Fold this sequence. Notes:
Elements: H1 2-24, H2 30-54, H3 58-63, H4 65-90, H5 94-104, H6 109-121, H7 125-169, H8 171-193, H9 203-242, H10 252-261, H11 264-278, H12 287-310, H13 318-341, H14 348-358, H15 364-373, H16 377-409
Helix pairs in contact: 1-6, 1-12, 1-16, 2-11, 2-12, 2-15, 4-5, 4-7, 4-13, 5-7, 5-15, 5-16, 6-7, 6-14, 7-9, 7-10, 7-11, 7-14, 8-9, 12-15, 12-16, 13-14, 13-16, 14-16, 15-16
Amino acid sequence: xxDILVNDIVPILVIMILxxxxxxxxxxxxxxxxxxxxxxLNIALPAALFVSIVKATRxxxxxxxxxxxxxxxxxxxxxxxxxxxxxxFFKHSIAEAAxxxxxxxxxxxxxxxxxxxxxxxxxxxxxNLVIAIVAIIVNAITIPIGFYLINVGMNKxxxxxxxxxxxxxxxxxAAGAAAVVAGGxxxxxxxxxxxxxxxxxxxxxxxxxxxxxxxxxxAQEHLEKVKSKEAAKAAEAAQAAADPHHxxxxxxxxxxxxxxxxxxVVWSPLLAVALVILGVQVPSALDPTFELIAKANxxxxxxxxxxxxxxxxxxxxxxxxxxxxxxLILTPAVILAAGxxxxxxxxxxxxxxxxxxxxLPPAFSGIIISARYNIYVRxxxxxxxxxxxxxxATAILWIWLVPVIVGMFH
Length: 410
């Protein structure tokens, strides 16, 4: 365990602190920081995800179907739970909650998987199987889901902005409608004032009031039509500005999926999974090329996380503590319980590996996405820092606790 702390956790903290110092002293400009994020998100991270997945085989996925299903349902389920709880309890937008889920709901399996599990459980087939399955689920399922949700949230934010602009544009129309109403009221008063004297039943007055009410209804309908037209025009203008070749509005959900699939960090792992399922083996001669690019991912990602943290005030508040608890304690506890319920107690070592794999600190892709789109930066960077430090203690806890609990059920 000491070797893991010295060789894996300490370097992460040192590089993160280095990034924090660089950010505080403005060693890199904002454009250069965005360049780091773009390098990781569009080149290094997609290469790292691709390499981590294509090393798996189709046989791995079907050799232990129980392990695969628990990993799939558990990891994706906890990811979505993190998203919904962030929306429910902390009142964040869809895009912010999606980034929260990418951080609190996803372990950094590609970076620390082998580094942590190999020294503890040995470099064997079971270790490789667990890491490969969790890596496929995190990289090829939760990251695309996260990007889809971010795009949905950003599209809704654009629609709200367009509606707000439309409402501002409708103010002159509202003033005109008010004038019409005022005119109708004046006419009613005038009509009432000129009604024949001595009218017992006040029929003329009633007619004048009904005319005024009718004019008021017309004015209100006119105002609603103006608002709707202005909102539609503003929405179309915003869409046209974003896409000059746009002709017909696309379904928001379809658009969010299309926008997500355009990102290399989404289509790269999906392509790798497709190759694995089809049984296509990538030539080993290409491994050094992909691995050389992928090696840039971890170091630059951690450095960028430190720089992102330097731009905001570190927060060890309720939300940061909750995200840390969710990532390091609650998620592995749920996976452990699921493994025991579905009969994995007989293979305690494999269950222990799975628990440790999902108990790793947050995936650094989450904070890179956060910094790239300027979404959930403060809470995300704080959660990554707190979880990375906290893992030094929770890793020891799970190494000791899992065999004890498994022994009670076996």
